[in-house]
Amino acid sequence: MGRSPDIRAPGALAPVGRHRLHYRCDGDGMPGVVLDAGIAASSLSWARVQPEVARFTRVCSYDRAGLAWSDLSTTPRSISTLVDELRQVIDHAGIAAPYVLVGHSFGGLVIRAFARAHLADVAGLVFVDPLHPEEWSMPSAEERRVLRGGIFLSRVGEQLARVGLVRFLLSRLTGGAPGLPRRVSRMFGPRASALLVNIVGEVQKLPEEVLPAVQEHWSNPKAFRGMWQHLAALPSASAEMMRGIDAFGDMPLIVLSAGRRHPRWLAADASLARSSTNGRHLVSPGSGHWVHLDDPALVVQVIRDVVMQVRSARLS
What we know:
Blueprint: E1 12-16, E2 19-26, E3 33-36, H1 50-53, E4 59-62, H2 79-93, E5 99-104, H3 106-117, E6 122-128, H4 141-162, H5 165-174, H6 179-186, H7 190-203, H8 211-217, H9 221-242, E7 253-258, H10 263-273, E8 279-284, H11 291-294, H12 296-315
Parallel strand pairs: 3-4, 3-5, 5-6, 6-7, 7-8
Antiparallel strand pairs: 1-2, 2-4
Helix pairs in contact: 2-3, 4-9, 6-7
């Protein structure tokens, strides 16, 4: 199956309790920007955004526990724990408050909770097709079945990674021979096969130079354990968020929705934008859920707009 590539961590490791979280910072300037990825994604998912944001300010991305270069954690993934760990990463990175937080999907839930808890330290918020607590706080029977399926597949993936099968299948997939990986995924049902096709489609939108790191991380059993730990905590984290309120004053805040967003969640995005008197709701017409891969230029522009608003407010 060949030797594993030497994929070194591009950033630093912040001690967070008994484990360490990896983060990477680029650029200079204030306010600093912190990027928070989707539920099973990592700092690599921002590869088309972070270098461009670094042209006008300091920007940092990080990996939650178990993902990419971060250690696994034995602590349950409650939303309060995730907020506390993000705070420790920010402190270790020396990102001066107030800063701008940017969150995609599940990362949007984390930065929303962070802003509620540490409002004085947040200068601006950008939500990229965010997850809303209403989506999973009281899951239906079908949603619980889907969630259990995702956790089961993650556990299976962990075991397959331990014996090297995931590495082999990924090498076939990226080498232009997708037949075997697709046949294996079909063994777990049509939903698993469709999920594989979707994930591969999104990953292929990343810059070519980060693909070896993505492949290496998903060949590691740790990634699958980190994924199912986050999936297992999703209902409780969402329920915890339902007990709070959003009141962000006149903070610069932009909610960026995918063009293919369900009308219910488009309405929820618009409502979130109204939690600040300086909030805006924008739609990227041609984008799917991963807006920062489908329309990275718009995501960069939205972040720039918030950064410039914060700078202007400081000068006035």
